[in-house]
Design a protein that fits this description.
Radius of gyration: 26 Å
Largest sheet: 5 strands, mixed
Shape: globular
Structural class: alpha+beta
Number of helices: 20
């Protein structure tokens, strides 16, 4: 009975959210923002693909098998020369007719616990993740490539959406947000950072609104629009637990989580939010369904600043309800960044029907931001989790080889330390030393060395850089992408190449960034627009002028 219990729970949860949305009464703002109208070259249909394109696409995909696949995906890969002609015919028939195969609209949902620490006996702690047939994802991937070209050609991406885009990541998004907050604090301003939370956002998307927006805002029409209509309609899912399936459920809204096209359709669906937020002169950044708003001003304008944020959130909430999404007021977190001795500051911000008090710290895309932007809590939590993994590996170390231990440490410990470590550039050495001790402990665990053993030879043998060098490497790599034109525009616009006012011997060095003036070492000198040029300019001429990414890395 468990699969059916999960199935009923997931379906009823979406139904309850939609009913709750329908009951909400919202009053549109008098200064509402109209959606942009498409004015470029429309995408009226998809081009047919060659066998070479299908084979190339297959090689880039993960060979995961779904229980709905007629044969294991690994076997499909082994017989690729024989099956690619047939797959190409299936794909081209779908693209030419604008019809997504009905037999591939079924999904197998596996409930996954959102966090290991949550109680597995509570159904709401599970997330439904769809497992789709391989051929379904192959068609989606080939369509996605053409959709990306259309969006790039017509410049339809919003600058501050970082999800599911090449060279964009949580790290680049947070690097820009932290840069803006640090430079504001460095100039003596205070900032309000608001982290909005949407409930089951992927599952409540309204298909009719999505299709209308694809047509009017993104110029997807005729057969191309028919393909997306066919892709969304008449989808079903079954929940499987321990090999037992529930009865099928019809999906009347939402996009399948785990699909290839679903996430991109979601960010296109929510793109008008950016214009609404920008209308209030509030800075923002979006990463899929995570939206953060922030605005800075002088401490004397603190109450005006909070009212501006409240008005922006109010308009966001109106749009969210009108588009069949739900803003979770109680889970919204707000930080007041900066201090102003002797000046009265607000203690909360109104969000819907709730007064949300300012938090001392909040998790933002996996990184803990605090009201002082010191990142102390982030480092402490990072080290705590890393030592937990080290103890777990240590408990079975006697059964592992050196190489196996190295692999476990790299995947479970170093991956945590490297996640968004560019944000730690310029932090006090005492914080970096904490992380370095984790690295040292990991090296000693691999070689079963004593605590008194000299660490440098071990790190050298493992080819592990110290934490300060790992951070500098990440910053320098980001600067290289900016020089090469492959970095997100919101980072590229922060750095300016230096051009001397008169002819100098070194004038041929065109790859030097201008270092801006800042006030405080603990704030301004940690911003990317300052630390990036400092680290980049310190590199040798030959490194700065590397022509390829691989040569620059080496």
């Amino acid at each position: 009975q468990l699969p059916q219990v999960f199935s009923d729970f997931f379906v009823n949860k979406v139904r309850q959210i939609r009913d709750s949305i329908d009951r909400q009464v919202v009053h549109p703002s008098s200064h509402s923002v109209s959606e942009r109208r498409f004015s470029g070259t429309p995408l009226c249909g998809f081009e047919t693909v060659t066998q070479e394109a299908v084979l190339k696409c297959m090689k880039k995909m993960s060979p995961k098998t779904c229980v709905l696949d007629p044969i294991p995906t690994s076997l499909l890969f082994e017989c690729s020369d024989q099956v690619v002609p047939l797959l190409t015919t299936i794909v081209n028939q779908s693209l030419a007719t604008g019809i997504f195969p009905s037999c591939m609209k079924s999904a197998v949902v596996k409930p996954l616990l959102k966090k290991p620490s949550l109680d597995p006996n509570v159904l709401k702690h599970f997330r439904p993740v769809s497992n789709l047939p391989f051929v379904s994802k192959l068609i989606e991937k080939l369509v996605l490539d053409q959709l990306f070209r259309h969006l790039d050609h017509n410049n339809l991406w919003h600058t501050f959406q970082s999800a599911y885009r090449p060279k964009h990541s949580t790290e680049t998004a947070l690097l820009r947000v932290l840069n803006d907050l640090l430079t504001a604090s460095d100039s003596g301003s205070i900032s309000i950072l608001t982290l909005l939370d949407l409930s089951a956002a992927f599952d409540t998307i309204d298909h009719s609104i999505l299709l209308t927006r694809l047509d009017s805002t993104f110029g997807i029409r005729d057969l191309a629009l028919s393909f997306f209509r066919s892709y969304l309609q008449d989808r079903t899912q079954v929940v499987t637990v321990n090999g037992i399936k529930s009865s099928p459920s019809l999906l009347t809204c939402g996009v399948p989580q785990g699909s290839v096209l679903g996430p991109i359709l979601f960010i296109l669906y929510t793109q008008p939010l950016s214009d609404i937020i920008s209308h209030h002169s509030v800075s923002h950044h979006m990463f899929a369904d995570d939206t953060e708003l922030y605005k800075s001003d002088s401490p004397s304008e603190a109450f005006t600043l909070s009212r501006t944020i409240e008005a922006c959130i109010s308009d966001v909430k109106v749009w969210v309800v009108q588009n069949k999404l739900q803003l979770n007021d109680d889970k919204t977190e707000i930080l007041l960044i900066g201090s102003a001795p002797g000046i009265d500051l607000p203690s909360s911000v109104r969000v819907g029907q709730s007064d949300i008090s300012f938090s001392s710290a909040a998790r933002n895309l996996g990184v803990i931001f605090d009201s002082e932007l010191a990142l102390k809590e982030q480092v402490n939590k990072l080290c705590q989790l890393a030592y937990l993994e080290i103890r777990r590996i240590g408990s079975i170390r006697q059964y592992l080889s050196v190489e196996a231990t190295k692999t476990l440490v790299s995947s479970l410990v170093l991956s945590r330390l490297d996640y968004c470590n560019a944000l730690l550039a310029g932090c006090p050495q005492v914080l970096l030393d904490k992380i370095q001790r984790v690295i040292n402990c990991s090296a000693r665990l691999i070689y079963k060395a004593s605590k008194s053993a000299h660490i440098t030879p071990l790190l050298f043998d493992l080819h592990w850089l110290p934490i300060s060098s790992r951070i500098q490497y990440k910053i320098a790599l980001t600067c290289f992408h900016i020089i090469s034109g492959t970095a997100p525009p919101y980072l590229s616009e922060l750095l300016r190449l230096y051009s001397p006012s008169r002819s100098l011997r070194s004038a041929s060095d065109t790859r030097i960034f201008r270092v801006p003036r800042v006030c405080r070492r603990t704030l301004g000198e940690r911003s990317f627009q300052y630390i990036g040029p400092v680290i980049w300019n310190s590199l040798s001429f030959s490194v700065r002028h590397a022509t390829t990414l691989s040569s620059f890395k080496s």
